[in-house]
Specification:
The chain is of the alpha+beta class and 1023 residues long. It starts with 6 loop residues before the first helix and ends in a 9-residue tail after the last strand. Mean pLDDT is 94; it is low at 1019-1023.
Length: 1023
């Protein structure tokens, strides 16, 4: 009797038809395939993993081997079998030649193949194989697998196939703790026919297990993850998509059962416009149920660093495109590769008609295993989507791996049937013919789960409801550097989101109040530029330099589009004013795009003749002078001069404006003299002292609450060595804190105005050859201390943080996320909590004890780590792969310290962060309208709620005479929207602008969308 399921038995059986060929390769450097036979080859040693490796840096290596096909292996006859060579490499380019003919190409992602060396083995036959591999720029190259596999016709068995069946059976027995089996077996292999009879007898004796295994089904779904840009530029993405889609369409002709899913309306739009014949075939396959459109978002975006309105637009444009082109919206959010997901994601998805969420990325966690495979994911407002932690992407049809995945799925979920995604991915590719042929063979095995093709939606709908609920963010314990890498992309994204918010509001008001043209197509084009650049390898900073060169071009296009749209604004011309205080007075209009009343410093330009040496002053509409600072900025031409003027604009109403006059006269100047014996900044709220020895803050005193907030030097620039990570741009070294570098060196400190009215302290510090140029400044009547930073960054593999030790001891820190906020512990106890040693925030973080707190606001830096008494903000990194010049040279950003009484809610931290990102807008009108109908002080729209944030005001997608108002509750409490102003609510909508039945009261953390129209009378309406 033999235990036929032992590893030694299975390996002995497999070795009758398989042989490792890794040691037989000879190597030379680059040449032409025509010259391969004349090259001088050498042998290289295997490393500890039995890989053949060579140096990084696009180095070419040829591997060459001649195979003489044997008559037998261990007496088992091989004549007439099919011989395949299974290869796996790590190379940015791979070319495989058989007898001097190219038979296969690949790259880092299409990195495995099984090529036929002989379809009918004749003993003594000679086959030559040459492989040309190019090492990656960032990593060594490698040939890791080289195995000869002799197989029978797929209608027959062979020892290798039976060995795989036995391993599948053993995995089943192990998984479900069944009794082991011992069966008689005859090892006489020299007579192949008789030996196959022994194999059949062995299989027959195991048939009692078949019915149990066949109770399970592995559903198959073809997939080809395609990054919109990563280690290739966008133009290559289009080519890869075309190759992938054509390949799938051709395979579906030969394998009509094959189902395939793919995301990304942005990609389909390009195919539609540039390859209409392919697009038509895809539409036909979608209609036939063989091609599934999944995702529902414009691209597969980064989800931690974009704001609520960006997520809404991904869904709006993505879903409406799918509805228009394919006849239905997506019900499955498909984000397999995004680097973590903010907690509000389920609510966004539900509001866009999506019931299911699929990812596999948390399988990449470096510390803990995510506890659920199939679960309800709940947002803070209570919204839920059914969520699947899918099988890994980029896999082939590998029965043993598939079986083990299926048994694990059954044990964890209790659900009998698993879903397996197969197909080459990352750079596209999708299913291959070899994968499909292997699947067909294993369909016939009695010892493998049933195999059926399906769609994602059909599979998800077949599952029983999840038993578990996850009520938290989906934090990826990996890729923590992506909150910081390529700071230029983060800055553009935040500024673009803010500018789109302003310009859409302005366009909506101009259209509704002044009948100007609303450039809807242009605004959508601008949005799609931003959305594309939010792709999960572009915005996180993990793409090659060429991708960012293209992104820069698109950023200029974005600016041109918004300048065009903004140029259509004519609200100012509709303002009717009393007589000006001076014949040459110009109207100054200060506009507030926020949904609450604001005050602040505004700055604008004044163009005058070079010969005009007069002074200029500002007054309000009552004729009362306002303190103003006017400075000559730069000479435009020989005839005109540009002046920059700044003043404090007070009580600008919600989504409205207030007018002022600019006219010749002696201005009322603000005394900007400051003490020279200490570097002190002070207003009625804060007294801040800059340490003259370090340039850090030695004191920040809250004058209202009579508290010193710092417990040590604040804004201390801390540098750490950050190297040794394979995923360089993505990952921060987990042990970075053990490798501190020399502190920043103070180069210069002096008093210097920030802008016009605002005194400041200017500090220059150096970390190595990198210069940090910072201004501390306090605006009048403002409770926040601003720190503007300009850096010429030169370091590689160095991490820089700004540290703020605080006189607080708290258990939790609160961080802003898209459409809300999330608490994370400052005293981690579990392994999962400890893994959150670097976390994302959208625009602010706050530490408070319920009675007092400190917020740190940031305009475009998103990586934080907090302790119970400290906030640290990550400013810069120095990664080299995949972009060796990432973050080198110039950076500008601002972060702000905001001490406050009470909680971040009572202190309106969310509003303060929005004000940092979205300043008041100001423009001048030399000739105001005499026939205007708008008053000189006006609020177009007021939400009348302290805990509602306006997310968007835009034209309706379906009716140009109506508009869309979107807002969200930001404090975790109930809210009432009592809309005042020039608009009235028609009805509530979802994110796709479809009617939605909701209560009048807004739930905590809820996102609300309304269809509104211009009010027909002057009475204020209440919804």
């Amino acid at each position: 009797m033999a235990d036929v399921l032992t590893a030694s038995f299975i390996e002995r059986l497999r070795n009758l038809v398989q042989a490792d060929a890794i040691e037989g390769w000879k190597v030379c450097e680059d040449c032409a395939i025509e010259d391969i036979s004349s090259q001088s080859f050498t042998k290289i040693e295997l490393n500890d993993k039995r890989y053949l490796v060579w140096e990084k840096g696009h180095k070419v290596r040829w591997f060459y081997q001649e195979f003489v096909l044997p008559e037998v292996i261990d007496e088992y006859p091989l004549s007439g079998l099919t011989l395949r060579l299974a290869l796996t490499w790590w190379a940015e380019l791979a070319e495989v030649y058989v007898n001097d003919q190219k038979v296969q190409e690949g790259d880092l992602f299409d990195h495995s193949c099984r090529i036929v060396l002989s379809s009918n083995v004749v003993p003594g036959e000679k086959v030559s194989v040459a492989i040309r591999l190019v090492s990656p720029g960032h990593d060594i190259g490698g040939l890791m697998r080289s195995r000869l596999i002799y197989e029978s016709d797929y209608d027959e068995i062979d020892p290798g196939f039976v060995a795989d069946e036995l391993e599948v059976i053993q995995s089943y027995i192990d998984a479900f703790e069944l009794d082991q089996l011992e069966i008689e077996f005859d090892w006489k292999v020299s007579d192949r026919q008789k030996f196959h009879q022994s194999l059949e007898a062995l299989r027959s004796s195991l048939l009692p297990l078949s019915s149990r295994i066949k109770q399970h089904t592995i559903f198959l779904l073809g997939h080809a993850h395609l990054d919109m840009a990563w280690l290739w530029d966008v133009e290559e993405t289009w080519r890869a998509a075309e190759r992938t889609f054509v390949s799938v369409l051709n395979l579906q002709k030969d394998f009509p059962e094959l189902t395939f899913c793919h995301t990304t309306p942005a990609l389909y739009e390009w195919i539609e416009q540039n390859r209409p014949e392919i697009f038509a075939q895809i539409q036909a396959q979608v209609k036939a149920g063989k091609w599934e459109i999944v995702g529902g978002m414009w691209v597969e975006p980064e989800m931690n660093l974009i704001n609520a309105e960006s997520i809404a637009r991904h869904l709006l444009y993505g879903q409406r495109y799918c509805q228009e082109k394919f006849g239905e919206i997506c019900c499955v959010a498909w984000l397999p590769d995004t680097f973590g997901f903010n907690w509000q994601t389920p609510q966004f998805l539900k509001l866009a008609g999506i019931d299911y969420f699929v990812t596999q990325k948390l399988r990449w966690n470096d510390t803990t295993q995510f506890p659920y495979e199939w679960f309800n994911w709940q947002a803070p407002d209570g919204s839920q989507v059914k969520s699947l932690m899918s099988s890994p992407i980029g896999e082939g049809i590998e029965p043993i791996k598939m079986a083990k995945f299926a048994w694990d799925w059954v044990k964890k979920t209790g659900q009998p049937n698993a879903l397996w995604l197969f197909g080459v991915g990352d750079h596209g590719g999708g299913p291959t013919r070899d994968m499909l042929e292997i699947a067909e063979r294993w369909k016939r095995s009695p010892f493998f789960p049933k195999l059926e093709f399906t769609t994602a939606l059909n599979y998800l709908e077949s599952l029983e409801d999840p038993e578990n609920t996850w009520n938290d963010e989906l934090y990826l314990e990996f890729h923590r550097g992506c909150y910081t890498t390529h700071g230029d992309q983060k800055r553009f994204n935040r500024e673009a989101e803010a500018r789109l918010h302003l310009v859409e509001i302005d366009a909506s008001l101009s259209s509704s109040m002044a009948s100007s043209e609303y450039l809807k197509t242009d605004l959508e084009e601008a949005w799609k530029i931003v959305l594309f650049n939010q792709f999960h390898d572009i915005l996180p900073g993990s793409s090659i330099r060429e991708v960012y060169n293209t992104a820069l071009v698109k950023q200029f296009e974005f600016g041109d589009i918004l300048d065009k749209v903004y140029g259509k604004s004519n609200i100012g011309t509709q303002i009717k004013l009393p007589a000006p205080p001076h014949p040459e007075a110009e109207l100054v209009v200060v506009f507030n795009p926020s949904s609450w009343e604001r005050s602040g410093i505004v700055t604008a330009d004044l163009t005058k003749s070079v010969s005009d040496e007069r002074n200029w002053k500002i007054c309000n509409l009552n004729g009362e002078d306002i303190q103003v600072q006017i400075e000559k900025s730069w000479i435009n031409t020989g005839e005109f001069c540009i002046y920059c003027y700044s003043f404090w604009a007070e009580t600008i109403p919600s989504v409205g404006y207030r007018c002022f006059w600019l006219y010749p006269g002696e201005p009322l100047l603000l005394d900007t003299n400051v003490s020279s014996d200490e570097f002190i900044l002070e207003n009625e709220f804060i007294k801040a002292i800059v340490d003259p020895q370090t340039g850090s803050l030695s004191s920040v005193f809250d004058k209202i609450q009579h508290r010193e907030i710092l417990n040590g030097l604040g804004n201390e620039l801390q540098a750490f060595q950050d190297s040794g990570q394979y995923w360089d741009a993505w990952n921060i070294d987990p042990n970075y804190a053990k490798y501190p570098l020399e502190s920043a060196k103070l180069l210069e400190i002096k008093y210097r105005k920030w802008i016009s009215l605002i005194p400041g302290v200017e500090v220059k510090r150096a970390i190595g050859e990198s210069i940090f140029h910072q201004w501390y400044y306090l605006e009048p009547d403002s409770p926040v201390l601003n720190i503007y930073t300009s850096v010429n960054w030169k370091k590689r593999h160095v991490l820089v943080k700004a540290a703020f030790p605080l006189n607080l001891k708290v258990n939790f820190a609160t961080y802003e996320m898209a459409g809300g906020a999330i608490e994370r512990t400052t005293r981690p106890e579990t392994e999962a909590e400890k893994a959150k040693w670097e976390v994302p925030a959208l625009g602010w973080v706050d530490l408070n004890d319920g009675e007092y707190g400190v917020s740190l606001l940031s305009d475009c830096k998103h990586g934080f780590d907090c302790q119970s008494d400290q906030i640290r903000l990550t400013l810069l990194r120095g990664s080299e792969f995949p972009d060796p010049k990432a973050d080198l040279d110039s950076h500008e950003f601002t972060y702000t310290l905001y001490p406050h009484a009470g909680t971040w809610k009572t202190a309106q931290t969310t509003r303060k962060a929005a004000e940092l990102l979205q300043p008041l807008e100001v423009f001048t009108l030399a000739q105001p309208s005499k026939d205007g109908t708008l008053p000189p002080f006006h609020s177009f729209l007021d939400l009348q709620s302290d805990n509602l944030i306006l997310s968007s005001l835009k034209q309706s997608e379906d009716n140009p005479d109506e508009y869309i108002l979107r807002c969200y509750e930001c404090h975790g409490g109930p809210a009432e929207l009592n809309l005042k102003g020039d608009f009235e609510i028609v009805e509530a909508l979802d994110l796709l602008e479809r009617p939605l039945q909701v209560s009048t009261q807004i739930r905590p953390w809820e996102i609300r969308t309304y269809r509104i129209k211009k009010r027909q009378n002057q009475k204020e309406g209440i919804f």
